[in-house]
Amino acid sequence: MSQTQSQTQASPSPGLVARRAVAGAFDEMVAPDGSVRPAYRPVVDALQALSGPERVARFGAAEQYLREAGVYYRADEDGGARLWPLAFPPFVIDPVEWRALEAALVQRATYLERLVADLYGERALVREGILPGRLLGHNPEFLRPLSRQGLGPKPLIRFVAVDLGRGPDGTWRVLGDRTQAPSGTGFALENRVATSRALPDLARQLHVRRLAGFFARFRETLETLNDQDGARVGLLTPGPFNETYFEHAYLARYLGFHLLEGGDLVVQGDEAKLRTVDGLRPVGVLWRRLDADYADPLELFSQSRIGTPGLLRAVRAGKLELVNALGSGILETPAFAAFETALAKRLIGEPLALRSVDTLWCADPASHAEVRGGDWTLGPAFPGQTGRALPDLALPPEPGDAVHLVARRVPPLSRAPMELGGDMVSRPVTLRVFLARSSEGWDVMPGGFARASHAPGEAVPAIGAGGRSMDVWIPGDEADVPITLLSSARDFRRRLPGSLPARAADNLFWLGRSAERTEVAIRLWRASLERGGEERASAVDAARRAILTRSGIAAADALTGIHRTARTAFDIASRIRDRFSPDAWRVLAEVVELLTEARRAAAPTDHAALAGRLLTRLAGFSGLVEENMYQFAGWRFLQCGRRIERGEATASACAEFLAAGGEGVSEALLEFTDSRLTYRRRFSVELHPETVADLCLLDPLNPRSVAYQVAAARRAMADLPGIHAGESLDPAARRIARLHVRLETAVPAEVTPDFLRRVARDLRDISDLLSARYFAVAPEAAIERLGSE
Known about the structure:
This protein is α+β, with helices and mostly antiparallel strands. The chain contains 26 helices and 19 strands. α10 links the parallel β6 and β7.
C-alpha cells in the first residue's frame, strides 16, 4: 500500500468532513494526528460512499419515521408537540473501551445502591462524620416518612441513569446520577429504530449490539417482583403534560405494562389497586416515572393532584414494590460528589473508577475559602432546587450561609461529529447510560443516548432547550442473536387482554365522541360555505349556522372553532398512546396540521377544498378504528362514543332542519347524513319527505341513520364488561333497548322535531349512565375515607 493510499484511508474526506479544531477538547472521531479513530472508520467510509442527495434522503427517512411514529419530547405552550431531534451519525464507542466503562458503571451503581440503603437505614455515614448531617437535614429529597425503608433486604434502586462527559485527557467523568425517575430509555429505542432505517447496512456490518435483551431482562425482574396472585405491573406516569410522556406510553406498550396515572390507583387497606371497568384489580409493582413528592398527597406533598392517597401505606406493608423507591432521588444531590471518595471507600472498599467532576460543598470552611480564590462555577447543592425558591447563586461571606451551594469544575467536553447542512461539524457531546438491577446484579444497557449541541459552543443544552440526540452504537465481534419480547411460540395460548383501566376506557369513549363531533362540525361548515352569503340564506341555512354557533363555532371564524374541536380529539388520543392505533393517531395529527396551516396561511385558503380533505382523513380514521383496532373492551367503548355522538348529532341537527321548514329541508337531511347517492339508487330523483326521513333517520341499513347508530351502540354495549345475557338490564342497557324499539317501530310520519329531540336527549342520558357506571371517579371521597382510618 502506498503512502498516499494509507493517508487517504486514515483521514476523513475534506468534502464530507468540515471540522473546527477546538483547543484542549478530546475529539471522539479524529485522533490528535488527524487520523480517524478506528471505531469511526467504518462510519466515515460508509458516509463517503453515499452521495450528498442520498445522505439527505436517508437522514430524511429517519426523520420521517420519527414524525409518523409521533416521537415527541414535550408539549409547546399551545399544546403542540416538538419532534424528537435526532442527529447523525451515531455516537460510536470502541468495544474495548465500552467493556471498561461497563465495569466502572456497575461499580458506581453498587456504590449508589449501598449509599441510599445507609441514608434510609442506619445512617452510619452521618454518624461517623463521613457525610455532613446537614446534607440530609436540608435535603428536600430526604423523605422522613420513609426514613427506615433501607433496613430491609430489598434494594431501593433498580434502575439508574448516569450522565457522562469525556474530558480533554480522554477520561470519562460523571456529570450527574439520575435515580428519581430516569428518562431516556424509550427515546434510545426509537433512536435505534430510526438510525437503523437510515444506515441499515452499516449497522449490520458493525454488528451493533442490540438493546432488546436489556429490556427483556428488566421486564423479567419486575415480573418476578410481582409475586401477588393476579397483580399487575404498571408504569406510573405524571400524565400527558409531562415532557417525556411519549416515552412512558412507548415503554408501557413495548414491555406490556399498564400505563397508569395516580388517579387510576386506589389504596384499600394496605393494598394498591387499579380501577378498571371490571372493578378493582391488585397492582404489585410500579415502575415510577412520577417524582416522589407528588406520589402521595396524604403523607408527602399535600397539594398534589396527580398522586394516589395512601400509596405509602401500601409500600410500608410490602404490598407494593416501586422502581425506584420513593426518596431515592436523594442520590441526585450534587453536594454528595464532594464526599464521594470517602463515601466509596467506606461503602465498597475501593475508589470509584468513574468519578464525578471536581465538586466542593461551599458550607465547608476549607472549600469555601478555596472557591473564593479560584475559578469555580456555582450551582445548587440539592436536587430540585432550580424549580423552587433558590437564593442567588452568589457565594455568601460565611460558610454557614452556603449550605445550598456547591462549586464545580466541568472540563471542556469531548466533541463528536454531527451532520449539519451536508457537512460534518464538531459539537460538544454528553452520554447518558442506563443500568437495571436484577437478582444477579447490575446490567448495563449496551448503548444509551448521546446529546449534542446544535449550535457551536462549549455547553450541551437539554433536549427541550435545543439539544440534539444521537444513537449510541457499541460494535460487536459478531451479530447478536435477535431477541423478542413476545412469548415463546411453544408457550402460546391465546388469551384475552386484561382488564381495561377506567381512565383508558373513559378516554376511548370520549375520543369516539370528539372525532364524530369534529366531523359533524366540518359537514355543517362545508354546507354553509356552499350556500353562499347571508343574502341567500334560507331558514334551513339559518338553522345550520345556529347549530354551529351552539357548538362553539362562530360563522365569522369557523376555522378556529373546528381547530379547537379537532385538537380536543387529538389530545384525548395522545393520552392513550399505549392503547391506540398509531396510524389512527397520525390521521388525527394530520387533521390538526391541516387546520393549523390554514389558520396561519397568509393567502386565502379554499375552505371548501379544505373541508373535503378533512372529511377524507376523518373517514380514514373511522376505517382504521374499524379495521385495525383489536375489537375488545377498548374498541367497544370507542364504538359506543362514536355511535352515541353521531346519533345525537344527527337527531339534533335533523330536528332543527325539520323545525325550520320551508324549501330545502329534504336536501339538508340527505346532505347532513351523506345519503344523496343512496337515495338516488333506491328511490326516484324526486325528493319525498317521508322516504327521505325514513332513509336518513329510521333505515337500519343506512350507516348514517339514527336507527343504525342506536343499533350499533346497543350491540357494543351488550358486550361491555359486567353485562351478561339473561341478567337484569342495567339502566344504560334498558334505556338503549327502549330507544332501539322506538326507532325500529316508528314510521316516517311520526318523525317530528319533538320526536328527534327526545331521541337526542335519550342518547345524552345513555352517555351519562355509561359514564356513571364505568368512568366515575371520586378522589376527594377516597382522601376523606383514608384520612379517617
